[in-house]
Automatic annotation (TrEMBL):
<dbReference type="GO" id="GO:0009116">
    <property type="term" value="P:nucleoside metabolic process"/>
</dbReference>
<dbReference type="GO" id="GO:0004731">
    <property type="term" value="F:purine-nucleoside phosphorylase activity"/>
</dbReference>
<dbReference type="InterPro" id="IPR004402">
    <property type="entry name" value="DeoD-type"/>
</dbReference>
<feature type="domain" description="Nucleoside phosphorylase">
    <location>
        <begin position="18"/>
        <end position="235"/>
    </location>
</feature>
<dbReference type="InterPro" id="IPR000845">
    <property type="entry name" value="Nucleoside_phosphorylase_d"/>
</dbReference>
<keyword id="KW-0808">Transferase</keyword>
<dbReference type="Pfam" id="PF01048">
    <property type="entry name" value="PNP_UDP_1"/>
</dbReference>
<keyword id="KW-0328">Glycosyltransferase</keyword>
<dbReference type="GO" id="GO:0005829">
    <property type="term" value="C:cytosol"/>
</dbReference>
<dbReference type="InterPro" id="IPR035994">
    <property type="entry name" value="Nucleoside_phosphorylase_sf"/>
</dbReference>
<protein>
    <recommendedName>
        <fullName>Uridine phosphorylase</fullName>
        <ecNumber>2.4.2.3</ecNumber>
    </recommendedName>
</protein>
<dbReference type="GO" id="GO:0004850">
    <property type="term" value="F:uridine phosphorylase activity"/>
</dbReference>
């Protein structure tokens, strides 16, 4: 049955899903990559489209921005709609020197300052990791894309967008963190809670330390081809 945040009927959302944060990016991905696509939910401007990809049912739905929004949608999709695999296809700010604007980051894990890491088990700071079957599928897909800059490693899910703390960046970079975003820890946590699978594949839209020119808002919305190719292949793997 529909939830307060998703109006689709049972069976209208596929078990496999790509999930960008931006509703406009979700619409573009659905229209450009899915066949026989249909809008099945549009509550609060967060659209969900279902179609097929290479003959397999697949959905695309936006998560909105931040841990709370992502937690709501991912939990409801896993728990009430039978979604089995969600891959976030979004953007991140590059942190590590080897990562450049326009590159793609496959997130193996998500560090976070969000309280989600301490709320679920008292006294424990939980770690959030991607699902290995999806990660392996993504790495296999990435191996065939020799013309793209692709990196695999941890990212940082921040609960604050405007947080001027250079020591946090330098400390995370020293530990191999590739980029910063705001949703992956929530998605990974929901998947672990619900016995499902999740992964994040990100396009680097700006860089925190190397002085690169940031992508424009339009570029952030449209330059995602490598991430989507990797994500779709991983979902099918």
């Amino acid at each position: 049955m529909p939830t307060p945040h998703i109006s689709a009927e049972p069976g209208q959302i596929a078990p496999l899903m790509m999930m960008p944060g931006d509703p406009k990016r979700a619409a573009r991905i659905a229209q450009e990559y899915l066949d026989d696509v249909e809008l099945v939910s549009d509550v609060r401007g967060i659209g969900c489209w279902t179609g097929t990809y290479q003959g397999t049912p697949m959905s695309v739905m936006a998560s909105g921005m931040g841990v709370p929004s992502t937690s709501i949608y991912a939990t409801e999709l896993f728990r009430f709609y039978g979604v089995e695999r969600i891959i976030r296809v979004g953007t991140c700010g590059g942190m590590h020197p080897k990562v450049k604007v326009g590159d793609t980051v496959i997130a193996t894990a998500a560090h976070t300052n969000a309280s989600i890491s301490t709320l679920l088990v008292p006294g424990i700071n939980l770690s959030w990791a991607s699902s290995y079957p999806l990660l392996r599928g993504a790495m296999d897909a990435a191996a065939g894309l020799t013309d793209a800059g692709i990196h695999a490693g941890p990212v940082y899910t921040s609960d604050l967008f405007y947080l001027a703390r250079p020591e946090i960046i330098s400390g995370l970079v020293a530990l191999g963190t590739l980029g910063v975003e705001m949703e992956s820890a929530a998605l990974f946590a929901a998947a672990q809670q619900e016995g499902a699978e999740a992964l994040t594949v990100l396009t680097v839209s700006d860089h925190l330390t190397d002085g690169s020119v940031d992508m424009t808002a339009e570029e952030r919305e449209t330059l995602y081809a490598t991430a989507v190719k990797i994500a779709a292949a991983a979902l099918l793997s």
